[in-house]
Amino acid sequence: MEEKKVLFSAIQPSGILTIGNYLGALKNFRRLQSDYRSIFSLADLHTLTVRQDPAVLKKNTYELAALYLACGINPEESVLFAQSHVSAHAELTWILNTVCYPGELSRMTQFKDKSAKHEDNINMGLMDYPVLMAADILLYQTELVPIGADQKQHLELARDLAERFNNRFGETFKIPEGYIGKSAARVMSLAEPERKMSKSDANLNAFISMNDDTDTIMRKFKRAVTDSGDKIIASADKPGITNLLTIYCAFTDKPLSEAEKEFDGKGYGEFKTAVGEAVAAVVDPIRCEKNRILADKEYIDGVLKDGAERAERLAYKTLAKVYKKVGLLPRRRG
Length: 334
Ligand code: TRP
Fold this sequence. Notes:
By secondary structure, this protein is mostly helical. The protein is 54% helix and 7% strand. Strands 1-2-3 form a 3-stranded parallel sheet. A two-stranded parallel sheet has the order 4-5.
């Protein structure tokens, strides 16, 4: 039997996730996990690049671990671990830093955006963020990396660094491919459908979080901005209705044409209720399951412990190869 290819992806434990994050990441992870040797990480070291309250970070990390599990990541089949538990991530970052140039990092779109947003804390970690992400990916000889569209530039850098290292020191890393799932089709704000849905929106009605209960979801969709006219079709001059249709299709796995037919002749009110119900039917059971898992910290600790051990074995194989290639002395033991 042919060995399965390696899939690696990670999410930052930086707070509640929106349905956009769910569609762009977790939904794909569950679908892809058994076709690959899947490795999923809680990118806690990345999260430290913007100021965190330590107690909140800890809570968010448990929340995210529980959410991965509630979304169907099977910890026996896949590897689920916290990035900080496997020190090879930080170690490979150091080596990759020596083949990466500051100009490559200072022109990253996300670095520029985050620097503008966190003017009082433009730290070295924020700039080095993509190198840590490259280390995450390259440590596991990853072939497929499911990412959101906003991470494309970072994946490109991971590929560049891998190629550069391979050229300089000989074949060491596999060159990873990105995977941007079709349901990562951008989910827009419910209040301003020209803008991306964001969990940091000051208007809580603009986004649906994975922590929203059915009543909240229904209420938010009822308030969602629609467009003039009364047709329920996707088109450039109807950003509100288009967004609601996109969400409906992503949550029901129906093609757009079918959804348009289904709502032909129906009113906006009825349509918004149907979208709310479709979303709640997926999100509510996930939220309940997440809370159930969250109540058992010992179980989560056990999953992460096992995950870290399995990840570490794989990671250190690559790290040892890298250290040898660059000419570091092998450490003698015993
Ligand atoms: N930077 C990614 C994000 O915010 C998270 C991440 C960290 C990641 N390391 C990764 C994604 C490695 C894919 C592969 O979305």
